[in-house]
Amino acid sequence: MSSALSDVETETVSLLTKIYKLQQALSYYPEDSSIVYPPSSGHHIDEPTCERLNLSPSVISLMKKIPYPRDFDGIAYAYPCVNDSIAAVYTEADCLTAGRDPESHMLGEPLRMNLLKPSELVLTFARRDGVNILIDTADSMY
Which pTM was predicted? Predict the structure, then answer.
């Protein structure tokens, strides 16, 4: 991984951590354990599923390092992280697959498994008026 990509990963992790810590400080979530921060070894991610989905090493690395709501159907869904958007929780294997086509997933339609590049990662799933936030780990610019 190049230095520029490491910088993007570091900045992304830092920004997401700040967002969650601010929301926690403002008592947005029902309890401190609503957000799970990665251990030093990184979150456990279902790597065999990642390989089947052809996710790039930089996407897998980022998924291991960002904080997550405790669960997708509970905390993440009940407490949208930004603009009516639900945080992806990649510690849950179902999110790995759903994250390849967040729009179809939220509409209950068949997923388009080749919609995103292997280097792209969805950070949020849009609800009614929300947005799908996407980062391309192969791009050193935001």
Answer: 0.90
